[in-house]
Amino acid sequence: MTKKYFIITFGCQMNKSDSERIASLLELMGYKPAQKINRADLIVVNMCSIRQSAVDRVYGKIFDFAKLKTQNSKLKTVLTGCILKKDRQKFAQKFNLILNIKDLTKWPLPLIMSDRTLLEENYLNIKPKYQTQFSASIPISNGCNNFCSYCVVPFTRGPLVCRDHRKILKEVRKVIKNGTKEIWLLGQNVDDYQSREINFAKLLKMVNDIPGDFWIRFTSSHPNYFSDELIKTIGECEKVTPYLNLPVQSGDNKILKKMNRPYTVARYKKLVKRIRKEIPGIALSTDIIVGFPGETKKQFENTKKLFKEIKYDMAYIAQYSPRQGTAALKLEDNVSQKEKNRREKVLTKILEKTALENNKKYIGKIINILPTKHKNGFLTGKSFHYKTVKLKGKKDLIGKFIKVKIIDALPWGLKGKLL
Ligand code: SAH
Ligand code: SF4
Ligand code: F3S
């Protein structure tokens, strides 16, 4: 009987994209996807360690596996993704196998030696089994050299390795030919990309030059590498969408320094100003950490001030979580849980206001949407500016660009009417 697999993915878009490569590899080995977890012979957990809460979720799953194993004694469980050393030892007893994602090409080597794609050196070159036909996540790099003092990524994913731009372009051309409408270029800091003489701005331009009707998105960007050349390129490339995630992490210079983020608030603000001038109407999101060790009320007020000033469209607000191996672990995690909750709430409130204010500007406008979901007679999708839009419509419009008139705005999205 054919063996079935089930993948559980935690964490960021990079992990989701990695899971697509895992799926494709398993299918090359003859596995078929299991519709339900209790039908699987192989469960792969692709984990995230960015905060302790992410790790705790994996522990929760282990409990479920014990039950599943009583129903299927042959069930195999594999752990991969971003794993911290100390957790690796603990999980070793709970999973049948712990495999390094970077070794994906070698996972089943004896079984599928004949497949050429698996002899690639870089696992990113394994052709993924894309989750959807109309949106494709394409990694351009993996890892990070920045060592922000709170962050595990340089430890779990290793140093920055950029993919050859020709391989990236080849993959883009292929998915476009298959009808993909949205390309996500992924990396921890895409603006740090460099392969031979090609930097991220040049890569964007090359992707933009590929013929076809599609949108180009990318994430994340690091304020330190966001060059004027890149700003100009985004403004000029008609397929590159006017949406930018530009994590600031804190609005206080002393905290930024302790975080090892090599910019000041003033420099970040100047950068945003230049971006808004060259790319009018661009939607901006950010990442913020509240309750970093030693963050005083006054320092938090600075973050609040910046937050109000920039008027973000979206923000990923996280409470500081101490992580093994990071430099910040030496600092006392001395902001109380209650105070972290409060700071998170304060920022969420501001975001609700600024996002609504920004969204109201779309009322009455006619914009393009790429619907991706259908439920109870309603389509939802993202706009060119990466705004969530909900409207009445038929299922067969999924994956097609449609023109929509915006009739109402909420903090977290827009309501539209099909034209
Ligand atoms: N490479 C991206 C983000 C990677 S991690 C960048 O540099 O911006 C995604 C987000 O998780 C970070 O932006 C940060 O806000 C949050 N994060 C990372 N480590 C964290 C920690 N120890 N505690 C809380 N949030 C954290
Ligand atoms: Fe982590 Fe900093 Fe690298 Fe982003 S830039 S992945 S926050 S170390
Ligand atoms: Fe998590 Fe690894 Fe992404 S730690 S956020 S899955 S890079």
In short:
The chain has twelve helices and 20 strands. It has 419 residues and is of the alpha/beta class.
Question: Describe it for me?
Answer:
This protein has 419 residues and is of the alpha/beta class. The chain has 4 domains: 4-106, Methylthiotransferase, N-terminal domain (Rossmann fold), CATH 3.40.50.12160; 130-241, Transcription Regulator spoIIAA; 245-360, 2-Layer Sandwich (Transcription Regulator spoIIAA); 366-418, Nucleic acid-binding proteins (OB fold (Dihydrolipoamide Acetyltransferase, E2P), Beta Barrel). Helix content is 34%, strand content 23%. It has 12 helices and 20 strands. It has helices spanning 13-28, 52-71, 85-92, 109-112, 153-156, 165-177, 200-208, 228-236, 253-258, 265-278, 297-310, 337-360, and strands spanning 4-9, 32-33, 42-47, 76-81, 97-98, 135-139, 141-142, 161-162, 182-186, 194-195, 198-199, 215-219, 243-245, 283-290, 314-319, 366-375, 378-383, 388-392, 402-410, 413-418. The strands form 6 sheets. A 5-stranded parallel beta sheet has the order 2-1-3-4-5, with helices on both faces. Helix 11 packs parallel to helix 12. Residues 110-118 have low confidence and may be disordered. Bound molecules: S-adenosyl-L-homocysteine, iron/sulfur cluster and FE3-S4 cluster. S-adenosyl-L-homocysteine is lined by residues 50-51, 150-151, 153, 188-189, 220, 222, 247, 249, 287, 289, 318, 320-321, 323. Residues 11-12, 14-15, 48-50, 81-82, 152-153, 156-157 line the site of FE3-S4 cluster.
